[in-house]
Amino acid sequence: MQKSPEPFFWSLFAAGGTLAAFLTPILVMLTGVAWPLGWAPARTMEHASLHRLVSHPAGKFVLLVFISLTLCHWAHRFRFALFDLGISGGRRTIGFLCYGLAIAGTLAAVLVLWKS
Amino acid sequence: MNAIRPTETSAARPFQAPMPATWWLKKPSYVLFMMRELSSVFVAAYSVVLLVLLHRLSQGPEAFEAFRSGLKSWFSIALHLVVLAFALLHTFTWFNAAPQSMSVRLGEKKVPPHLIAVLHYCAWIMVSIAVYWLLTRPAAP
After folding, report:
1. Measured between CB atoms, which of A32, A47, A78 is closest to B40?
2. Please, what are the domains in chain B?
3. In which band, very low, low, confident or very high, does the pLDDT at B104 lie, cut at 50, 70 and 90?
4. Burial level of A65, CB count in 10 A (0-12/13-18/19+)?
5. Across the interface, which of B48, B101, B136 has its CB nearest the CB of A44?
């Protein structure tokens, strides 16, 4: 019997969903709302302080895992949402496209963090 | 002779009308389900924004300044507010579903389901405070 890859994809979905649940709201709030409106200290988005964070190996690791797994979370959920909307053909193509984009995003994150 | 043999599908399965793509608009609970699924798009969109931020950061202070000033536009703030709303929807639905996806036992006793959700919310608040502190702390002397 061939082993189904679904449990593997589901575990990535669950890990990404957990990371997004804990981290996305505060990050969006800080970088996209509070800092632009002047509610957060100016140093929040300073090049020097962020660079210090990104140049630390632990910072790189957390950012890479966060970006990669949240994209995998999207790939899984979006794929099944399309099926729920009644798309019956091209299931394999949709799967390849969704996870392909998640892998592309992961590779981009590796490249960007490597340079930082 | 193929012609006289009934096809498998016509005999075995009754006709099923295809669901219209708008089936989820029929009930508020279906709409909430679809919004929950859609939240993943906004969660991923923010990760892409973060990726762009890191890319611009790696290009140096001037490139980062250009990116940063873009965040201050009203268009960007409005978009981030929409993303924030969906991110919060994701967090709430994720934590509320947590008791169903994990069964925690302490010795003989099963941890009550609502306690699992409450602990998630407490942990979320602590993580958010920690991230806020990490990103806003004064530079080391």
Report:
1. A78
2. 24-102+109-136 (1.20.1300.10)
3. confident
4. middle
5. B136
CB count within 10 Å of CB A36 equals 21
Domain extent at residue A105: 56-116
At B5 the pLDDT is: 53
Say which residue the tokens 């189904």 belong to. A4
Give the residue-averaged pLDDT of B24-50.
95
pLDDT at B64: 96
What angle separates helix A47-55 from helix A57-84, to the nearest 10 degrees?
A: 90
pLDDT of B4 higher than 60: no
The answer to whether A62 contacts chain B (CB < 8 Å) is no
| A36 vs A50: CA distance, rounded Å | 16
Q: Supply the pTM of this predicted model.
A: 0.88
Mean of pLDDT values over A91-100: 93
CA distance A16 to A99: 13
